[in-house]
Amino acid sequence: MKNYKEQSNAIAAVLSSYFEGVYNGDTTLLRKIFHPKSLVVGDVNGLAYFKTLEEYLDGVANRKSPKELDQTFKMEILSIEIINSIAIAKVHLPIFDFNYYDLLALNQTEQGWIIVNKLLTNVKIY
Q1: Fewer CB within 10 Å, N side or C side of the chain?
Q2: Gene3D superfamilies of this UniProt entry (predicted)?
Q3: Nearest Cα to 80, choosing from 13, 24, 1?
Q4: What is the pLDDT of residues 13-48, one digit of tens each?
């Protein structure tokens, strides 16, 4: 395995593409960085959320993007943990009226790092 800094930078590039895809509603870009069998699971305001990648991308494609709504880009990487060819990234996505926190599981493949699963929750701000 390459050194941690190189791997972390490569994962950060994938996360940057993730943020760009979500912010712009770019499902083509999102499809490039997610494994096709990825699941998107979690809760939104206490309600269970469970979707295949295709169901998730359909939702992204059929909504106005944060960019179209002229929202300020505030997405950020909070942490990256790497063990051999797997990694977990904790990211923050305050979009629409939500305060999302995602845990993204990544795997290093011959083509580079890809997101294999997404866990999400909305943390209410009081």
Answers
A1: C
A2: 3.10.450.50
A3: 13
A4: 999 999 999 999 999 999 999 999 999 999 998 899
> Who contacts 56 (Cβ-Cβ below 8 Å, separation ≥6)?
40, 118
In angstroms, the CA 126 to CA 42 distance is: 21
| pLDDT tens digits along 81-111 | 999 999 999 999 999 999 999 999 999 999 8
Task: Give the per-residue pLDDT at 2.
Answer: 62
- Contact between 21 and 30 (Cβ < 8 Å): yes
Residue 112 pairs in a beta bridge with 109
Which overall architecture, per CATH, does domain 4-122 show?
Answer: Roll (3.10)
What is d(CA 109, CA 111) in angstroms, rounded to the nearest whole number?
A: 5
